[in-house]
Amino acid sequence: MPESPYLVIHPERVRRNYRALDAALSTGDGAATRIRFAVKASPVPEIVRLLDEEGAEFDVASIGEIDLCLGLGVSPQRLCYGNPIKKTAHIARAYALGVRRYAFDTEDDLLRIAEHAPGSEVECRFLASAPESRTPFGTKFGCSPGEAFRLLVRARDLGLVVAGPYFHVGSQQLDPTAWRIGIEQAGRIAEALADKDIAVNSVNIGGGLPISYADPAPALGEIAAVVKHAAAEFLSGATGLVVEPGRALVGSAGTIHAEVVGVRTAPDGRRWVYLDIGRYNGMAETENEYIAYRFVTDRDGDPVDEAVVAGPTCDGDDVLYQRTRVLLPTTLRAGDRVRILDTGAYTASYSSVSFNGFPPLTVHVSGAERE
């Protein structure tokens, strides 16, 4: 047995998730939505190769992710440098490597793309008026819809190929109407661009597709129905969709195997359970307790009670759950094994480099569906 903690990824579950999403978003006339995997969710070579075989595109956020994909044989034509925050040197490097798709949300970035990646296809990210997601971006990314229109006209005038507007409803979005709102706003931008003789080839509806953790998420079919109805209502038939899932493809395909380091009762009477995995070596998405993972132990079936769950470092912020109601067996002891379910997304890729001397989360790729 490998030393705990470690993440086990099951690639065939990723394949099934990809095919289910592809089927859900296809339309009755045979049209398909382009699926662009957000590599940052799980930059595991076996996953990249599998999705490349399935025909996916790839949303890359850095030169490192570009190098990873190209090194695995992915065509640069299937990459989109989707991070609006990028250095000039990195734009030039990506272009030299064959990348011809870029996202932006400022005029400054647009001008640098035009200079260092001439003739490339571009998407402008706008801030949609969508409800807040479970892990929101705030206003870090995206310009106003009016500014997106102006910048896409500017992109055409600079000799770039306009793909269309791009929005993201926030990670782990639990309200399906968020996509309808974004698509309606994108449709208005597309109409304004048509008046300038600029045809919108695609609308990028971003990621944010949720999965169920401790709390249930809307079914994929429910979200897909909203997306397809909104596209039919607000976009022309010639406008395709691009979706950039990360969590929806890989989240359910991973399980973290951890160990109880210790259990104590604090002076306030609360029980604390310390694991060998915490905020800095895989559990970053527990920040603000946004994501409530499910725990399975070998003592399930014993009496349970509430517990504060914390990581192993000496940082006071390395606490996973103290407001969220987590019920764990009262018999848990140091050395007991704990499995954390649906942890295939944003765990190993968020893991820090040896904070407090704890190594980053190890990833094992399984040939079996479940361990």
UniProtKB/TrEMBL annotation:
<feature type="domain" description="Orn/DAP/Arg decarboxylase 2 N-terminal">
    <location>
        <begin position="14"/>
        <end position="250"/>
    </location>
</feature>
<comment type="similarity">
    <text>Belongs to the Orn/Lys/Arg decarboxylase class-II family.</text>
</comment>
<protein>
    <submittedName>
        <fullName>Ornithine decarboxylase</fullName>
    </submittedName>
</protein>
<keyword id="KW-0663">Pyridoxal phosphate</keyword>
<dbReference type="InterPro" id="IPR009006">
    <property type="entry name" value="Ala_racemase/Decarboxylase_C"/>
</dbReference>
<dbReference type="InterPro" id="IPR022657">
    <property type="entry name" value="De-COase2_CS"/>
</dbReference>
<dbReference type="InterPro" id="IPR022644">
    <property type="entry name" value="De-COase2_N"/>
</dbReference>
<dbReference type="InterPro" id="IPR002433">
    <property type="entry name" value="Orn_de-COase"/>
</dbReference>
<keyword id="KW-0456">Lyase</keyword>
<dbReference type="InterPro" id="IPR029066">
    <property type="entry name" value="PLP-binding_barrel"/>
</dbReference>
<dbReference type="InterPro" id="IPR000183">
    <property type="entry name" value="Orn/DAP/Arg_de-COase"/>
</dbReference>
<dbReference type="Pfam" id="PF02784">
    <property type="entry name" value="Orn_Arg_deC_N"/>
</dbReference>
